[in-house]
């Protein structure tokens, strides 16, 4: 079986408990959740969840079908089957004595990230991009010492006007 | 049959009276909305959080409310009512412990796709989340075992929610829907606007009509098949498609096996019927599945009790799966021709120009031969009472006309094996969850739905003790269920596993200390009879049948009897222990 990463968008009724219904389904049926993000959609009363999961084709098919069984689920779209844009945001608090700052700034600029806070011996970096970009940036910052990390998980959309 | 099952008072006039738009409480809205859904019987148990609802029921006689002795009794009764009638079963419980006592019953209904509307009270909206007295997050607790659920926060939503709940419960793949009503919502007043319009929900549109192309593919597959077989399940019964199934089977001439929940969906007397498949299925059905080249699954879900070891299941067959729930298709078994739709509708469409399976003559003969050679068998005895013999006796005296409910265990399998069914909704048993304690209270519900029919409940001595308190409501309402106990003095099915799989290490299966069931019945005011040999058995059963009202008949049966054939876990279904090796 070919295990791959899938990004699924789920349009749901904005009802209390709907996140629990969706995440509970994943847990109960043994589907993996790598990340899940939820927020407003283009339509009042509907939220969009973006779920990154791993599994074979058969698992993906079951995930879609099982999601459709939830009454508050309106639409399920497998984004990764089409060209898509994925974005994730991360805040990274990295150790930095004043002397190290220019070096770190260099990394930040290369990644078109931003420094959003400066402490006596730390910097807070904000980076937006796809998962690979954030992973790569973290790799480079690791040597300085990462104090705190908070990633949002991916949100995504299909390109063009599909 | 003389019973006290009361007549429901509802008349058109009354309905009109109730349906006037008026400012009333949420509790009254609930009752009126239930009437609008055609409810005539509700099972329940009061408590603080539902007191406004019970107050509104004071003197209300438009539907019957049966006060069970445990919430588990109430929900299993509602389940039995639904299975035996095709209508939605309704039960009511209070918040916290009342609601959590329903959990087993909700899960039972969910696994077997029984339509239920389960109403629970909750603490007032202002107290929700504070760990208030008798608070439990019942919508959260039951999320994995309900088709949908509502926590009603605004009294004005009640009529719509109730209407939607009934719609969801009894359409598509049926199942239990929970409505949790906080106490202040049941007390609040608002203008009652009856909700009867068709339900339109964006996220809920079950596919009823199948894809035509897939049906054509199936027609072609039937014409080509040399060893075709039909595997029919509960979906046939739930969709009301039994007549269409009969036509399909007889037009194609394809042998048919029915799952535990499919029993009654096809008459057991028919030549093409080859019994139940799976763990305790027939030699014929299991071998036929394994050798078939076309397996047409109609409304069954390839449960592991049916398939045995999955890889190695029906290894030569092209697989067709007809199901209302798309998620069932391909879930356990890879499918060659998927058909999503309502079983009755699919069969109706399939029956137009359906071909006779012309290439299958040799196969038909082969299967018929197996059926002749290897029926279910047991060694009868004149010394001890054999449970299989008892079931056969019940069958003989009722000609398959009764509604039979069972509990879970060996007696359930013997009932499935030795009772003959000729109509749907005559067989009520917990298949998916295998819930002990289900058998007896579900019979009460089945009887409420069918006051004129004979209802027999077959139980083990173990499971009978899980809900025996409901004898009280049989006595009080003179509900004429015939309660059979096959007493083998042990947890029989567990003993069988310990004997065959755990090397005779009998661990905690002895039911010594069980009550004298005759006295137990009498303590509730129900007639109790006991039989220990064939003669007594026949006499006791005759007396039970001649007695109007409920009767408990205890048959003291052979303790050492096992259910055969048996497919042990990890084997393919044609590897059966036949029981005659010893
Ligand atoms: C609520 C519940 N608990 C435990 C079981 C496991 N179980 C399955 S069959 C069985 C034994 C049933 O014994 P009895 O009711 O005496 O019936 P018999 O098998 O002897 O006919 C048990 C304990 C179950 N199915 N349900």
TrEMBL record, chain A:
Enzyme Commission number: 2.2.1.6
Keyword Transferase: yes
Keyword field: Amino-acid biosynthesis, Branched-chain amino acid biosynthesis, Transferase
One example of a Gene Ontology biological process annotation: isoleucine biosynthetic process
PROSITE patterns: ACT
Keyword Amino-acid biosynthesis: yes
NCBIfam families per record: acolac_sm (TIGR00119), PRK11895.1 (NF008864)
Function recorded in the entry: Catalyzes the conversion of 2 pyruvate molecules into acetolactate in the first common step of the biosynthetic pathway of the branched-amino acids such as leucine, isoleucine, and valine.
Quaternary organization: Dimer of large and small chains.
Name by which UniProt lists this protein: Acetolactate synthase small subunit
Organism: Paenibacillus kyungheensis
TrEMBL record, chain B:
Domain Thiamine pyrophosphate enzyme TPP-binding: 407-555
Record's keyword annotation contains Transferase: yes
Entry cofactors: thiamine diphosphate; Mg(2+)
Enzyme class: transferase
UniProt pathway: Amino-acid biosynthesis; L-valine biosynthesis; L-valine from pyruvate: step 1/4; Amino-acid biosynthesis; L-isoleucine biosynthesis; L-isoleucine from 2-oxobutanoate: step 1/4
EC numbers for this chain: 2.2.1.6
Protein's name according to its UniProt entry: Acetolactate synthase
Family that this chain belongs to: Belongs to the TPP enzyme family.
Catalyzed reactions per annotation: 2 pyruvate + H(+) = (2S)-2-acetolactate + CO2
Domain Thiamine pyrophosphate enzyme central: 216-350
Domain of life of the organism encoding this protein: Bacteria
An individual GO BP term: isoleucine biosynthetic process
Keywords: Amino-acid biosynthesis, Branched-chain amino acid biosynthesis, FAD, Flavoprotein, Magnesium, Metal-binding, Thiamine pyrophosphate, Transferase
The record's free-text note on cofactor binding: Binds 1 thiamine pyrophosphate per subunit.
Organism: Paenibacillus kyungheensis
GO molecular function, one term: magnesium ion binding
Any coiled-coil regions, as ranges: none
Gene Ontology cellular-component terms listed: acetolactate synthase complex
KW ATP-binding (keyword) present: no
Domain Thiamine pyrophosphate enzyme N-terminal TPP-binding: start-end pairs: 25-139
InterPro entries membership: Acetolactate_synth_lsu (IPR012846), AHAS_TPP (IPR039368), DHS-like_NAD/FAD-binding_dom (IPR029035), THDP-binding (IPR029061), Thiamin_PyroP_enz_cen_dom (IPR012000), Thiamin_PyroP_enz_TPP-bd_dom (IPR012001), TPP-bd_CS (IPR000399), TPP_enz (IPR045229)
PANTHER family assigned to the protein according to its UniProt record, in alphabetical order: ACETOLACTATE SYNTHASE CATALYTIC SUBUNIT, MITOCHONDRIAL, THIAMINE PYROPHOSPHATE ENZYMES
PROSITE patterns listed in its UniProt record: TPP_ENZYMES
């Amino acid at each position: 079986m070919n295990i791959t990463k899938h990004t699924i968008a789920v349009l749901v009724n904005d009802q209390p408990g709907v996140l629990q219904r969706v995440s509970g389904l994943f847990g109960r049926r043994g589907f993996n959740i790598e990340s899940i993000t939820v927020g407003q959609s283009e339509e009042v009363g509907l939220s969009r969840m973006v779920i990154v999961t791993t599994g074979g084709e058969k698992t993906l098919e079951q995930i879609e079908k099982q999601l459709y069984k939830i009454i508050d689920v309106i639409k399920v779209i497998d984004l990764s089957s089409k060209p898509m844009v994925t974005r994730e945001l991360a805040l990274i608090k990295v150790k930095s004595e004043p002397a190290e700052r220019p070096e770190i700034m260099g990394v930040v600029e290369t990644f078109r990230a931003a420094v959003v806070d400066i402490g006596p011996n730390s910097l807070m970096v904000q980076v937006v991009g796809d998962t690979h970009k954030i992973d790569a940036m973290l790799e480079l910052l690791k040597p300085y010492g990462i104090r705190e990390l908070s990633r949002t998980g991916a949100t995504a959309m299909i390109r063009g006007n599909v | 049959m003389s019973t006290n099952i009361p007549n429901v008072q509802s008349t058109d006039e009354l309905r009109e009276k109730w349906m006037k738009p008026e400012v009333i409480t949420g509790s009254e809205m609930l009752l009126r909305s239930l009437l609008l859904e055609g409810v005539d019987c509700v099972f329940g148990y009061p408590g603080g959080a539902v007191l406004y609802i019970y107050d509104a029921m004071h003197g209300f006689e438009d539907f019957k409310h049966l006060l069970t002795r445990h919430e588990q009794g109430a929900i299993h009764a509602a389940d039995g009512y639904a299975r035996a009638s095709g209508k939605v079963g309704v039960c009511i419980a209070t918040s916290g412990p009342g609601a959590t006592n329903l959990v087993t019953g909700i899960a039972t209904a969910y696994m077997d796709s029984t339509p239920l509307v389960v109403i629970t009270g909750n603490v007032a909206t202002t107290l929700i989340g504070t760990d208030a007295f008798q608070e439990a997050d019942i919508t959260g607790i039951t999320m994995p075992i309900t088709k949908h659920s509502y926590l009603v926060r605004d009294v004005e939503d009640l009529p719509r929610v109730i209407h939607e709940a009934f719609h969801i419960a009894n359409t598509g793949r049926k199942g239990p829907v929970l409505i949790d009503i906080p106490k202040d919502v049941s007390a609040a007043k608002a203008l009652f606007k009856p909700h009867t319009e068709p339900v339109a929900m964006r996220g809920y549109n079950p596919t009823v009509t199948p894809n035509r192309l897939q049906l054509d593919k199936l027609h072609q597959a039937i014409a080509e098949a040399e060893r075709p077989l039909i595997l029919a399940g509960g979906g046939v019964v739930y969709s009301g498609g039994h007549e269409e199934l009969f036509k399909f089977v007889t037009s194609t001439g394809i042998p048919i096996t029915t799952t535990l929940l499919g029993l009654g969906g096809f008459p057991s007397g028919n030549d093409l019927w080859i019994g139940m498949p799976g763990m305790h299925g027939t030699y014929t059905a299991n071998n036929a599945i394994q050798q078939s080249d076309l397996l047409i699954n109609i409304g069954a879900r390839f449960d592991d009790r049916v398939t045995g070891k999955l890889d190695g299941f029906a290894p030569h067959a092209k697989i067709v799966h007809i199901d209302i729930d798309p998620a069932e298709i391909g879930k356990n078994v890879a499918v060659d021709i998927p058909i999503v739709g309502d079983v009755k509708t699919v069969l109706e469409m399939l029956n137009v120009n359906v071909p006779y399976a012309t290439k299958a003559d040799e196969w038909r003969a082969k299967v018929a031969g197996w059926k002749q050679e290897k029926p279910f068998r047991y060694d009868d005895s004149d010394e001890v009472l054999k449970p299989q013999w008892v079931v056969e006796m019940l069958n003989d005296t009722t000609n398959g006309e009764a509604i039979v409910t069972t509990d879970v265990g060996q007696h359930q399998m013997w009932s499935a094996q030795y009772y003959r069914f000729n109509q749907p909704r005559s067989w009520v048993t917990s298949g998916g969850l295998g819930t002990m304690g289900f058998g007896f209270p579900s019979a009460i519900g089945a009887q409420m739905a069918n006051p004129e029919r004979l209802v027999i409940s077959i139980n083990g001595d173990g499971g009978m003790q899980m809900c025996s308190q409901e004898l009280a409501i049989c006595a009080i309402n003179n509900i004429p269920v015939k309660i059979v106990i096959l007493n083998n003095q042990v947890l029989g099915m567990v003993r069988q596993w310990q004997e065959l799989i755990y090397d005779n290490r009998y661990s905690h299966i002895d039911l010594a200390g069980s009550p004298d069931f005759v006295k137990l019945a009498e303590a509730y005011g129900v007639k109790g009879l006991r039989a220990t040999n064939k003669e007594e058995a026949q006499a006791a059963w005759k007396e039970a049948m001649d007695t109007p009202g409920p009767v408990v008949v205890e048959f003291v049966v052979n303790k050492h009897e096992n259910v055969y054939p048996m497919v042990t876990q990890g084997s393919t279904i044609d590897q059966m222990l036949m029981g005659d090796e010893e």
